[in-house]
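Most newcomers find our protein records easier to grasp once they have seen one. A record pairs a protein's sequence with a compact description of its fold. An example says more than a description, so a record of this kind follows:
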Amino acid sequence: MVKPLQNTGFSFRWPATGWLIWLTGSYLGLKLITLGLVLITLGTAGLNYLTTGDWQTSWHTPLVGWTMLTVVIWLYWNYRIKGKKPTSDTRIDTDVLKYFSFHGRHIFWRALNLATQNHATYLGSHHLLAALHSNLGYRLTLARLELEEVDVVNAVANDGDIFYDVLTSALALGVAEHSRISWEDLLRGIIKHSPGLSQLLAKDKISVAEALSVVEWSKRNWYYRPAAVRSGLMYELLSPKRNINKAWSARPTPVLDRFSQNLTELARIGTLASARVRQQEADEAVRILSRGEQNSAILIGEPGVGKTSVVGDIALKILDNQIPSLKDYKLVALNVGAMLGAQVSFEKLFSQATREAAGAGNVILFIGNIGQLTKAKTSEGFDLSGILLSALEESGLQMIATASPKDYKKYVEDKEELKRFFTAVHIDELDEARALLVLEDKSRSIEGRHGVLVTLSAIKAAITNSVKFIHDSRLPDKAVDLLDEAGVEAARQGAKRVQASHVEAVMSSRTNVPVGALTASEKDKLKNLAAAIQEKFIGQDEAVTGVVDALKRARLGVAKGNRPIGTFLFLGPTGVGKTELAKRLAENYFGNEADMIRLDMSEYQTRESAYRIFGAPAVSGDVALGGGVLTEAVRKTPFAVVLLDEVEKAHPDILNVFLQVLDEGRMTDNLGNTIDFTNTIIIATSNAQARFIQDAVRSQMAYDVMRDKLIEMLIAESFPPEFINRFDGVLVFKPLTPAELAEVAKIKIKGLVEHIKREKNITLHVTDDAVAKLAELGYDPAFGARPLERVIRERIETNLANQILANDNLDEVTITSKDLSDE
């Protein structure tokens, strides 16, 4: 049957679906018949040999000829059904189907059949998508992208005539990858050229490049087969053992075998994966190892950047004979931990193992974190770096080592006699795009362990959140760890997919920082935050509005993420509510009044006192004794209010350190840890120029004018201008009026009543006239609300204590204004 396709300009001869079923069945039947004939022929020949004793005569039967003919037919049919691989000269014509794989032709024929059933005048990409439904790789791709199949088909249905572009793109991919055109090529062609699908992906913040990567990711996972473990008598007899190469010329290495792990054997059984994003670094290391002299390499990079993955890739290249000069070599990782736990002295074992590795002739020794080894000394003071140097110098030991930049500089580069044996290969931290490819490769093991499917959104969330919140390790390791924990979380919840929400839940649990989309309860909390604070906080509306707005901007993702949530300088006389507002903010949004890190800056008036805040530098050895008060508190509670009380009393050098924190949201402590302040609100309070504020309020000076003049006075007398300018807002707290103080008195009495009921089970009543009397007695314009607290202690709490002493069965107390008089 010939079906004209208007959008291609040529015709395809295509069979009915029933013919496809017959084709598949006949191919399978022919395969089974061929296998059966081969087994029967071998069995018959064996019986004839046992009967006649003549091996040649036993094969002279007609069955052998039929078997050979069947095998030839099956091989030819197998060749034809697989299709040809396209070349650069291949063009789209009526014979293009012969360049499709069997799966690809099956999909194409199904698409043609669907187009005919729907009376379509052209073959559209939506027909191809509908035909792809039966393909596991396609369904896996949609699951990873978290897309519904019906939405994808509908998005592509109105694209118009893009079929020719899709087919051209699929052919180009087949040529470039030297493979037959299959489902993944057709799907990638649709993703590249479909405007509707691009819009659908954009709604979920997925780029076309990311979608194409997911197709490749699904293909790798679907077709992945671990390397077969070779075994059997012939393999044991013919294959070299341990370090013996094919020339049977290498020496045995008993100590090394006991305290090492053969990485080439791990590569053989499929345990190691290729570090495809590190090919440039792996090739550089291979060139070093292939030299005749100075052929030891050291990989330098921060922990977690993937140094060990490069070593694994080298093992794979050796196994695959991609390095002619290292043919029949093996890469062996030394197990230093096992040596330390052995009964024999460590230096003796280490010396013997390095000598054996050097003398074997086909061993490359791998030592991770060599800086820790070269600086080590035994209990008897024996320097291990001397053993290593001796093996490199005298025995011709060939090595791969890893080290952090700091350890390399201190323990290798500064030792000229050791440095000359190593050539450095620098391994930088991966960017987010390449880290995504690594996590796609790592997802297979995560899925296998937890029985879940990893989605693209989960990988992107793992990378984004690890970069934002985890600063003590590097990509890709920190993102892999986060994704692995999210797999555990998804499995515990009974979910089939690991999604971004699982990653965000793990991140929130780790840091106590709300991560991800706002929940309904959190939206309500943000909307009502100002009102909730003002239930227990009177006046200072400008300050309340400023801090609440900053929190909304940060939580909704409007503000830049490289600064703290908000930074404020609260100015005003004592007792007007500067510290109280910080407490109420911590209580109503951060969860608890205890989630406030408070430093009394009057305790840090000398330059040396800065060490108490940020940690003292090391005075001996390699590591300082401990972190600082502030840095350790923020590291443990990164989502909190940081209150710097009476900041004007701190030493100027301490204020200079805070410039970086206010501007960049992070700092490095004395231990080398990056402390993240981007999830804190930093509030500094100051009583400076309190007299000016009181005079300005009495003269009814406008708030903005008062604030601007106050800032000018502070810059001239108290703070450097760069310190003032780092704050998001400079907020002036006005002295409390008598009416406001009366409201404060009501709040404090309410808190006291609740406390007495909870602790003593006594119902306390304070009449309205008593509250008014308290406000009158506690009012002092110079000290704000602080005298009120003293009055409450003296006049109410003392009265209540006396009544409890006088009456053992007291259950109710009423305080009136008469009880507050001095008489």
